[in-house]
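Run log, item B.
One chain of 362 residues. Sequence copied directly from the ordering sheet:
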Amino acid sequence: MSAMPQHHPARYWHALSDGRIQCDLCPRDCKLHEGQRGACFVRARQGDAMVLTTYGRSSGFCVDPIEKKPLAHFYPSTPVLSFGTAGCNLTCKFCQNWDISKSRDMDKLAAQVSPTQVAQMAQHFKCHSVAFTYNDPVIFAEYAMDAAAACRAAGIQTVAVTAGYIHAAPRRDFFDQMDAANIDLKAFEDGFYWRLASARLRPVLDTLLHVRHHTRCWLEITTLLIPGKNDSDAELTALSQWIHRELGADVPLHFSAYRPAHKMTQPERTPLETLIRARRIAMDQGLHHVYTGNVHWPEGGTTHCAHCGSTLIERDQYTLKRYRLDAQGQCPDCGHALAGRFAATHGGFGNQRIPIRVQAGR
């Protein structure tokens, strides 16, 4: 792949009267002197402007099943070209991809790929979509949006896997380019966000509301359940009620199991029983599609008709066992349309993971 410039003009910033410049991408509002970087580490001041230092540079590419993002209602069992860069604008102590998102080593970004080449790679590997993932694509928004535009021109769908911590103006630009998103709702308590991620809850809720009501982007939500931190009955009930009331009963919600990582060696891994309890609470609050992740429990991956309860998609982790939707994405038993994006047949990709080696640019 051809070499790309390492410092690309950033779009979201303004000059301050005291000589600093302020990043306007996310609610951190980093204010920078010459040579300083933002909290995300990848947006930096260079002269009298802001640059993105990781434009066109990736920490790696892989072809995954779309269910791994996780997306359960977006063209099931299709291959997705997944990649990320480095850095993050949150400081999650429990980060499950900390070696990438917390990286300060630019040498990890060996793969240099232009937006057009991203689309070409997706076509070459017969991927239905491209996912911006592994670290949060919000911080490399300019690169992700340019790649998404190139993918759209090539007939490739795009997916953002993000914590949704972004200001209103870039939020509009960013999600207008995406076909689907899985947004982390890490907890439903502001103190959790502040203590464990140095962030706030409200901007994430605003992102969820915007994507659901003001874009054509298909939305699913993931909450990583950490024992004793965000898994109480009261918090899970409040979270589920908010989703039902503000976003709708058909927005899929994924409860995933935590494992000790990064700065949190305790508590132990989330037990299956916690995810089953959370799923029951969410469904009792009226949510139609609630899934469990990072555990082996086939029922937690099964999609049922919201009207008649028939099994429509049966999964064993990332492998589809049964797919009963018609060409319009409707239940064959009652004709009710399943919320999401579907084709007449599933993609048949199954439980595969295909790492892609990209030669470092010169």
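Observations after the first pass:
- Confidence is low (pLDDT under 50) at residues 1-5.
- The chain is about 25% helix and 25% strand.
Flagged for discussion on Thursday.
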